[in-house]
Amino acid sequence: MNFLQIFDWHQFKLLVEHSTGISMDALHILVGVLIQLLVAVLFKSSVARWRPLLAVLALVLINEVNDFLVDVWPDPGMQLGEALKDIVLTMLIPSLIFVLARRRPELLGQDSNWRPSGSKDSS
User: Fold this and answer.
1) pLDDT at 92 over 80
2) How many CB atoms neighbour CB 42 within 10 A?
């Protein structure tokens, strides 16, 4: 018996939803931001760099693939729509934070002349 057979990710997500009283949609939003910030801190990076945003994208895609494999709906179109909604909800705020950190860093308390290393844009 392997770890994935013992640990049921879908059941864990349901446990978190029901024990916190926070809807799955709201959890997607919160977890997306949390992952972005944690990756930035762990890698001593900035939310203006690509790594934290790409980490959120990678994890949400893994989660949605798992949802497709575990929870098969009678209508594949509805299931795909739900998956796309989850991806958009998870990526929306991290993407906004990323763009703000790159384009308007003063809104996040950074010097307006600051640019992430390797940034080619001068505006």
Assistant:
1) yes
2) 11
Per residue in 34-78, pLDDT tens?
A: 999 999 999 999 999 999 999 999 999 999 998 888 888 889 899
Per-domain residue ranges of the chain:
21-104
C-alpha 26 chain-centroid distance: 12
How far apart (Å, rounded) are the C-alpha atoms in residues 47 and 37?
7
How far the first Cα of the chain sits from its last, in Å, is 55
**How many CB atoms neighbour CB 62 within 10 A?**
11
pTM check: above 0.85: no
| Nearest CA among 56, 65, 62 for reference residue 90 | 56
Nearest to 100 by CA among 111, 92, 108: 108
- How does DSSP classify residue 5? H
